[in-house]
Records
---
Amino acid sequence: MANVVIPDAELVHNYINGDENALSILIKRHQSKIYGFIYSKVTDRDISDDIFQDTFIKVIKTLKSNSYNEEGKFLPWVMRISHNLIVDHFRRNKKMPMHRETEEFSIFSIMTDNSPNIESRIITEQVENDLQRLIEELPDDQKEVLQMRIYQDLSFKEIADLTGVSINTALGRMRYALMNLRKVIEKNKIILTN
Amino acid sequence: MAKIYSKKPIATPNMLPKKETIDFLLNYSKALKIVKTQNGTYESIAN
């Protein structure tokens, strides 16, 4: 018997009409992507749970008050809510969301590694750290798109919805991000291979 | 030029919220009633 996947729009409709199980299906379907997105920003499990909970409380209230306009964009809508709550969180705590380790910290954390084949692992981790530092040098809008695409596996449509720009703008920012990374790599003769 | 990709360093695959969080949301949804009137919107939580 084939499993029938009920579209998000239909589940939302059913939930608004009183089917509580529809909410359970929606949460189970999207929880990994939403929670992963939140955690990638706040890097704290407890805070991520709080923000995830607050996100869906807003979702539940909006749906139950019949204030939601269905346009086939349930997941981007929920991601936008969680994104705004993350911004609120950092405003309250006055923290920078993407603080990275210093160059010295990265090297010493690698040098304390005792696993076998350590040379290969060191090189791989150094390449990843170098790449992350290069990405940090990008303009904020390009860095944001690149990180959402590569590290969070979001589609360009989702990125466009989250950042409030058109898909073409998101694509353009990604293109410029990669072009700028290549320029910096060539200019400084950086080797990013294992 | 070859694409430059790196393995995802922050969020691990299949990272999920706590079961208690999900249970709370589902119970909250069942208990929440929202009524819209001319004077405003009212929320009530049934025990």
---
Amino acid sequence: MPTRDKDAVQTVPPAETKDRQRVPSAREREWQDKTLKPFLEKSSERLPEFTTISGHTIRPLYTQADLPGFDAERDLGFPGEPPYARGIHPTMHRARLWTMRQFAGFGTAEDTNQRFRYLLAQGQTGLSTAFDLPTLMGYDSDHSLSEGEVGKCGVAISSLADMEVLFDKIPLANVTTSMTINSPAAVIWAMYLAVAEKQGADWKKISGTLQNDILKEYIAQKEYIYPPEPSMRLVIDTLEFGAKNTPKFNPISISGYHIREAGSTAIQELAFTLRDGMEYVEWALRRDMKVDEFGPQLSFFFNAHSDFFEEIAKYRAARRIWHKAMVERYGAKSARTWALRFHTQTAGCSLTAQQPYNNVVRTAIQALAAVMGGTQSLHTNSLDEAWALPTEFAATIALRTQQIIAHETGVTNTADPLGGSYFVETLTNEVERGAWDYIRKIDSMGGMVAAIERSYPQREIAEASYRYQVALDKKEKIMVGVNDFVSEEKPLDILQIDDTVAQRQAVRLKKLRADRSSDEVARRLAALRKAAAGTENLMPHLYEAVKAYATVGEICDAMRDVFGTYEEVAIT
Amino acid sequence: MPDKKIRVLIAKPGLDGHDRGAKVIARALRDAGMEVIYTGLRQTPEMIASAAVQEDVDVIGLSILSGAHNTICPQLMNLLREKGMNDVTVLLGGIIPEGDIAPLKKAGVAEIFLPGTSTMDIVAFINKRYAPQA
């Protein structure tokens, strides 16, 4: 039903960091009086105020005066030690580079399998799967709502048969795979585990990451199916199953990426993501799981936007906040629980359709921030992503960008190369304080699920996104080629998704339904429905259902029958 | 001012949930003095056409980033014709490859706004079409 948006939007002001007492040294005051002031009288600054891309105010100079009481050994620690400001490994990128993991998926399973094998041949070190919208929403390719969407935003996967093709000749025992899927994540993971089993790969040794972060779906990306309660149950089921059966697999990737893409500030991205993480921990603890049993398998996923130092500060603050929360809130004892591991993707929303080759430069700078911020894995966007999914040409340049950073720039030679910078340390402190303000506010609402039900994070993000758009429209913020430095250019050659994908998928599904044992499918789906109505862990039931070649749509429908579906209150 | 406000339906068709653009546009048009109705997510062409009739809108703004525009837009245009909504202005914003623009306009989409468009340009486009006659 359409909703009228005439009601005034009520939001809480953004978490601004408190103005602290800054006491410059005598020498700094002398510099201000004798050098800075006379200079400013002759030549004023370019802008009335300098802010980060998130609108955070930046001072003209940072000195010791910005870090009163700073104790490097206490506040930063050493790499591989709490509070992990300088990174989670003692050697950081000297021992091992980050995993170069390019997100890919389009068309049918055959099409994407080919792209995967191409990327591995080019030196990529991990796989990352993009699924199409019908799969993400739990519909088969031949569902009426799938029309026009099959294979467009990712690969179409409707059953285990498709998954077998997707990973054909890719040894899951050796390759780590990330799968970007949320509402039906448990179903797709069951398929992945079934393929691994067929390949003879040991579940105890396979490694990879399932996104499986439903909270940020309600907050930002909006690919939810079920209401929060049963959705959280499915997530905790995977954490529980993973802790027992797949110790090297990350059953969740708690994601700020989409929150940022929806228009949040850096502080909001950080705060909402980490508070989401705490929400999962609290739900798992309520199921009597032990924090140090599942904590080491929690992984994170952040955006790398264009404001270089703000992003680096964000990653450093993220590690410090998570460590503090794990120790103080949940009593974690294991260093593996304390250390926040994260994947990064450069900011899709920063890329421009205009002058698209400039996107290579944007992506390179963003990737550099992720690396200098200590990322464990990285996806770099392709130059053509404001137009379509990437061509092989564009995807190759994106991968090469990471290889240039890794092997030519020297930024990998030392851990946390910006540690100790007055500016970076101050910004890290400010970002951390701003995030804690939000975290405590959400605590006071009763947690993240409660905050989501009040549309709190959704409104905060919509406000920030609108503020940024207004700043662009007024040219207070500049995007090169968009609101300044505009020029005409030739259209790009872009990837065309073959129009026959939906038809080929429909034929394959028809054959699948004819070939499989429909009695077995019916029995497995009935068992799943029964289990869903109770409280037992659903992973074993999902596993049996996918092995009987029940489809994504059938399995998600069985759970829709029991759980119902979710509709958000549309706010603008 | 006796002039009736321009009525705009902002719609998000298809399965995609990326609603940043739709929400920003809805708010910008409202701030520019238009009456804006936002449908929320995952609207079928039937739902959008019905809402357009029910709300008697002058403009429909579609936000599509998923690549499904070639399926959704012609379906919606047909439904609007069937319902006698021949005067409604249909605008499309999102990730639309250049090669698709001409066929979409031929199908009846009045204008297509690509990433990077200023909200002021969209406001100006609508105002120009519906400016009160002097």
